[in-house]
Amino acid sequence: AVALDPMIRTSVVHTWFLQRDNERVASTRLEDNPYIVAISLAEVGRKNEVLPPLHALEEKVKTRMRDFMMAARTLIEGDTVASVAAIRQITSSAFSDPEALLYLTRHLAHLNQVDPALELFERVVGGGHYCYPAMSSDPWLAPLRKKPQFGKLLKKAELQHQVAAAEFARLEGDRILGLR
Question: What pTM, to 2 d.p., does this model score?
Answer without folding.
Answer: 0.92
